[in-house]
Amino acid sequence: xxxxxxxxxxxxxxxxxxxxxxxxxxxxxxxxxxxxxxxxxxxxxxxxxxxxxxxxxxxxxxxxxxxxxxxxxxxxxxxxxxxxxxxxxxxxxxxxxxxxxxxxxxxxxxxxxxxxxxxxxxxxxxxxxxxxxxxxxxxxxxxxxxxxxxxxxxxxxxxxxxxxxxxxxxxxxxxxxxxxxxxxxxxxxxxxxxxxxxxxxxxxxxxxxxxxxxxxxxxxxxxxxxxxxxxxxxxxxxxxxxxxxxxxxxxxxx
Length: 254
Fold this sequence. Notes:
The chain is an alpha/beta fold. 36% of the residues lie in helices and 26% in strands. The mean pLDDT is 91.
């Protein structure tokens, strides 16, 4: 069974003047167990919309979306909320931590929402924080730490419930290159050690080179994909070659 199976998914947005803008046009996508999948495309290609509808943040207009065999399109709002808390982790470009809570309290939030109070006291948070190298900042607040530390805390919060899938939207977009490389090493840790499948949206070839497979999008459609068969450096070169071809056909990558 595929962990995520999206079939012929379409999504359009209606503006205030009632004009319709297609964002996804019949997209199909599969994520297998423990796969690290990247979604690449220019601005407006539909990659973030695809992440939003497959993660249940937004609803698609047509198509089917199954996570672990469950059709999330037929779930009520409350059912989907519970399902997402139990099966999905989210990491965003802007971290989305609560400034009124300490880092440790931020990581606690999913456990408290699910009533898993015992996990706040059994050492789970400390072990996870140790793996992400943030033990020494657990009692500090988000505004007191660096962007890279905030993102590591956000990753801890996203996986504290042991989700089946971790969705990440441009997780290194607000970080410098050195910090981005560190964050990507933590994503690999989540993927390799915690056996969590990851679907990551990115426009950056270096970030994408850490994935097992990369899907490319243009104008709301999947236009191709590439699977890593060798080392990251070779995969990076292969990704760049595809981007050059897209540039020649459509214009500058951004």
